[in-house]
Write a structure and sequence with these properties.
The chain is an alpha/beta fold. Helices cover about 30% and strands about 20% of the residues. Helix 5 crosses helix 6, helix 9 crosses helix 11 and helix 10 packs antiparallel against helix 11.
Length: about 475
């Protein structure tokens, strides 16, 4: 890692172009003390003799990527679960809970799986993530201890926000008047140094009344400990179910929760919002212009799990309707929606990649979007919009302009020097449509990961080489 006293220069790199840069094909980006110091035409930057020089070879630089919603403890456990028979949500909960009971007994496995996730993510270009780790009577603090330790170990490479997360119900039954032992453990967890977020899944509570109490308890903990709050919310496609996002917003109003506090309330999944009318989206836009509520959709999980055929074989919701259509929602209603990976190789999401760019690529087909503005929305959704959704980047740039004015994708002098160079790409569109494997990741102006493929084929011959 380069010393910040001498900086880093990325040579011969293509920008995710706007008209402002259309006259020059490649650029040099100089980074110093974690910020972009200059952007000049290739060959014109004269770096310090001891600066780190990275040759991009004409690759494209885009903002570094972000997992705005990822489960650090439940990744890569499908081989530790009972075989899936139906693939349903109740089955996923059952087999995962059984596997989860073994986590405290094999802490080495817990650390190894989470480390694998972080390493591969950073190599793909991720420099920020919100990592959920569960706290309950089954796992105690085993997952939390793991998350806090890894957040420290990777702090110079990737910003890892740890969520003390209650996946299980806080109330033991529909008649319980007080929260149970899971809540007591959560209260203890959020007081631990290094915890940035408190979260829960209100939909697992025994009834709607207890689900609303769950929201109140989590928001109160967030206020008391000065934390972000994050809910797995509105995880259904039932048009007759009243979305709980309105209740969350009402709670935020009653608590005078404001953007000036710097603490966000984020909702993940939120599949029910995909059924919103134009009027409902307009109402949500008005509310979120004032209140710091962010939305993260999880396509790989939600398309797999939601909208399954009923006993007659009827599919109630089209494929794309099982998650929030981020490009359309931004285009038609001005609401930004982040996209994130959520789970990898577990019963909730058996398939998919850790690479957020492949998630953006999936969105092109899933949402049937063929225009460059929509592709830029998808690129933002896994990078800058995801960072905004977890509070590590604000809706503007170093000069104070809004993201809409500057797009947020093209780097500017003074911006944080957090990038990923996609080396095989020759235009920004390719980073969304067919993202290449070879990449270099930059965090705070320093190189933190390189990923290269070894190539050989029987036709052209030659030795295997990088």
């Amino acid at each position: 890692m380069a010393s910040p006293n001498f900086g880093t220069v990325i040579r011969n790199v293509r920008l995710p172009c706007t008209e402002q840069y259309s006259g020059t094909s490649t650029w040099d980006i100089a980074c110093l003390d974690g910020r972009v110091q200059s952007i000049t035409s290739s060959g014109s930057c004269v770096p310090h003799d001891e600066a780190t020089i990275i040759e991009a070879d004409g690759g494209v630089v885009v903002p570094s990527l972000c997992h705005s919603h990822i489960h650090l403890d439940k990744c890569f456990i499908l081989g530790q679960c009972d075989p899936l028979i139906t693939g349903s949500l109740p089955e996923a909960l059952r087999v995962t809970n059984k596997a989860k009971a073994e986590f405290p007994k094999d802490v080495d496995n817990l650390y190894a799986r989470a480390t694998h996730l972080i390493r591969e993510s950073v190599e793909a270009g991720v420099t920020a993530m919100r990592a959920f780790v569960e706290v309950d009577t089954t796992v105690g603090f085993a997952c939390l201890d793991m998350g806090l330790q890894l957040a420290k170990e990777w702090a110079e490479v990737c910003h890892i926000q740890i969520v003390a997360f209650a996946q299980e119900a806080l109330y033991e039954s529909a008649t319980s008047t007080e929260p149970g032992p899971n809540y007591s453990l959560l209260c203890e967890a959020v007081s631990r140094p290094g915890v940035s977020v408190v979260g829960s899944a209100p939909w697992v509570e025994p009834n709607r009344t207890r689900a609303l109490k769950n929201v109140e308890l989590i928001l109160s903990l967030a206020e008391k400990h000065n934390l972000h709050a994050d809910f797995h919310l509105d995880y259904n496609l039932d048009p007759d179910t009243v979305p709980m996002v309105w209740d969350v917003l009402q709670q935020m109003r009653q608590r005078s929760w404001s953007r000036s506090s710097g603490k966000l309330v984020t909702i993940g999944h939120a599949t029910r919002l995909g059924l919103f009318s134009s009027g409902e989206w307009a109402e949500l836009k008005r509310a979120t212009d004032i209140l710091p509520l962010e939305i993260v959709a999880l396509p790989q999980s939600d398309v797999y799990m939601m909208g399954r055929a009923d006993p007659s074989g009827r599919v109630p919701v089209p494929l794309a309707g099982r998650t929030i259509n981020a490009p359309q929602v931004y285009r038609d209603h001005g609401v930004r929606v982040a996209l994130s990976v959520n789970n990898v190789e577990n019963a909730f999401t058996p398939q998919g990649s850790l690479d957020p760019l492949t998630l953006a690529s999936l969105g092109v087909a899933l949402f049937q979007v063929g225009t460059e503005p929509d592709w830029r929305v998808l690129l933002r959704s896994v990078s800058t919009t995801s960072k905004e959704a977890i509070g590590v980047m604000h809706g503007g740039n170093a000069s104070g302009e809004s993201v809409d004015e500057g797009d947020g994708i093209v780097p500017r002098v003074g911006d944080s020097a957090d990038f990923v160079v996609v080396h095989g790409a020759r235009r920004w569109q390719s980073t969304v449509l067919s993202p290449g494997f070879d990449r270099t990741t930059f965090y705070k102006g320093n190189v933190v990961a390189r990923r290269r493929a070894q190539r050989w084929n029987a036709n052209t011959g030659g030795e295997i080489s990088n």
